Amino acid sequence: MNVESIKKYIQDNPEIDQAKKEGYLKILSSPDVSKAEISEILDELEDAVQAKIDGVYADAGVVLDENSPEYKRQYQQMATEIDAAEKEFNSSMDEIDKEMNEVEEDTSQKIDDVKAQSIRDSIGI
Question: Which of 45, 53, 89, 121 is deepest in the core (most CB within 10 A)?
């Protein structure tokens, strides 16, 4: 995201307080704006968006508490499913590698046989 797109986002966003908009735009319009200043503004914008998301969840009665037993259980279940999927993927890849090596060896042997036959044919054996 470049400075111009950040400025456009800020200008077009009705959720951002006018005073904050003016402050952000003043900083971003400065010819010597630093990466640290841009990063700080992006962090503040991200925090504001996350607060808005959290507010929507709270209004809907959904509480995302990482310390709740239900959250931990769901997270552990997700982690277990990811591990199982990764193991299955790795197993499938191992089988594919094994098949590929067998095909490669077979192909190499057939090429060697064709070369040998070609040499025999060229010398009349």
Answer: 45
The string of DSSP codes covering the chain is --HHHHHHHHHH-TTS-HHHHHHHHHHHHSTT--HHHHHHHHHHHHHHHHHHHHHHHHHTT----TTSHHHHHHHHHHHHHHHHHHHHHHHHHHHHHHHHHHHHHHHHHHHHHHHHHHHHHHHT-
pLDDT tens track for 47-66: 999 898 888 888 888 877 78
Q: Which amino acid is at 10?
A: I
What is residue 77's predicted lDDT score, i.e. its pLDDT? 94
Domain boundaries, the chain: 1-63, 65-125
How far apart CA 20 and CA 37 sit, in angstroms, is 14
Size of the chain, expressed as the number of residues it contains: 125
CA distances from 28 to 22, 43, 49, 77, 88 (A): 10, 14, 19, 44, 49
Cα 19 to chain centroid distance, Å, stands at: 35
